[in-house]
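If you are new to this repository, start here. Below is one unmodified record pulled from the training split, so you can see the exact layout before writing a loader.
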Amino acid sequence: MTTPPEPPPDHEPAPAPGDEPTRARGGAPDGTPVPVLTDADADADADADADAGTGPTPDPGTGPAPASRVRRFWSVRRIPAAVLAALVLGGAGLLLYDVAAVRADRSAMAWRRELADGLATRPLDDTWVVVGAAVAVVLGLWLLILAATPGLRAILPMRREHADVRAGLDREAAALALRDRAMEVSGVQSVRVRVGRSKVAVKAASHFRELDEVRADVEAAVAAGVDELALAHPPALTVRVARPPRKA
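And here is the target side for that same chain:
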């Protein structure tokens, strides 16, 4: 007597904890074993890519932007330019008129005849010749200095957060802001702040508390204020604290 075969179960039994399917261990569906990439192998591949120069390149948009050098503001110098242009225009116009008058069979102006005779007869060591040469040299040096320096010393350049935006802060406004910060310190009666291009001088008067404590608090408050101004070139800080003068 033969026993009939048992029908297949409706659901497959759950695998044992130690007997996971091959696909979960990195195998293929048909049972072919697939090599498993471990952490050590991944590190070795990354080092090889880095040595060969084929590794992933970083996104240039995510890296820190290069800090551009902040330059001072240049002055247009309208007044010196206008004065120089007026002098050159007046002298050239007067000389041109005198030359045209001479060409029209008229006598030259007296100042041009005297100037020509003086330049022809006076020696080089004459007093007026030396004075005129010194004045010309001083004017030339002044024009060269104006052309080579930016000017606008009253405006302090600020840090550039965006490449298309430039900002500056007036020195008087910066001194007023730092004075308000120093006046918030306990024990300070009066404060004088002077802001330069490379230095901030603070002179405070304290009517109570120890001077060393007041000086430390004022220095900390003003240093925080200087950092909040966002200047491109933070100036050095000097703080002096003394007792107010006694009234007679």
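Two things worth knowing about this chain: The longest strand covers residues 188-195. Residues 188 and 206 are 4 Å apart (CA to CA).
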